[in-house]
Amino acid sequence: MFSQASKYALKAVIYIWTQSLEDKKVGAKDIAPKIDAPEAFTAKILQNLSKANLIDSIKGPNGGFFVDERHAKVTLKEVIQVIDGNHLFSGCSLGLPECSEKNPCPLHFEVVKVRKEINHMLTSKSIKHLAVEVIKGQTRLSDLV
After folding, report:
1. Cα separation of 108 and 127, whole Å?
2. In whole angstroms, what is the distance from residue 113 CA to residue 138 CA?
3. Is 144 within 8 Å of 130 (Cβ atoms)?
4. 116 φ, ψ to 5°?
5. Which of 23, 75, 81, 143 has a CA positioned 20 to 30 A from the CA of residue 115?
6. How many helices (H) and strands (E) does the chain have?
7. What pTM was estimated for this model as a whole?
């Protein structure tokens, strides 16, 4: 359902949260193997997430990526929107130029229901909440997306 880039981004932000909760900053070189992603691609994803203020970074010998309480309410949906845009949540599922409640495509009303469920799933828990589940051993990072 999600692009590979979104999967990497979600795992990366969750991993950053697990490290930040232990007062650690991590670099792209450390993150890439943890999320099973190419390092250069991971760095690009992290740069986009940082530009969108979903994570922070500090340069230098003690630098790296981190999050704090300012990021505590960031949801999976926000991460996906930064990486893939809004197409999962809007537009015609058949690609028609005109699709609305008044002029629906054949799938419009079914897709509206599914999108509401997806929206709820992606906004009901914060990334921080998922990171806490990983730390407690309730969920493995590799099983999340």
Report:
1. 30
2. 30
3. yes
4. -65, -40
5. 143
6. 6, 2
7. 0.88
